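Give me structure tokens for this 134-residue protein.
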Amino acid sequence: MAEDFDGFLQRREAAARAYTTGDPAPLLAMTAAEGQVTFLDPGGNALQGAQPVRISFAEGSAMFGPSTTTRFEVLDSGASGDLAWWTGFQLAEAELKGQPGHVPMRLRITEVFRRSGGAWLLVHRHASQASESR
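Here you go.
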């Protein structure tokens, strides 16, 4: 039986927690490994293609230390057929390797998923710095 999208979002948030403590494996497991995949990163870069995005995810995770905390603030989400999405914020207190202390992060996030073989796979992530005001 295919996983419902709400249940998947809980696993997606757990994958974000692993990612921000230096473990990209759960995120990579739910990211499409072929086809059109895009990532608009917080630094303003736009990556296209499954392999460049997956490499960026693996490399990006390495900059975080083990005491980083993160959570999602989902403003809206939905699924229809084999497509699903969520939008909102990713909030973190990030331990960045080579820097003292923790850095607060507030990112605006939109992610799109495609269902393939009964599993939701990430095919688009847009992450940009958000202002402190709400």
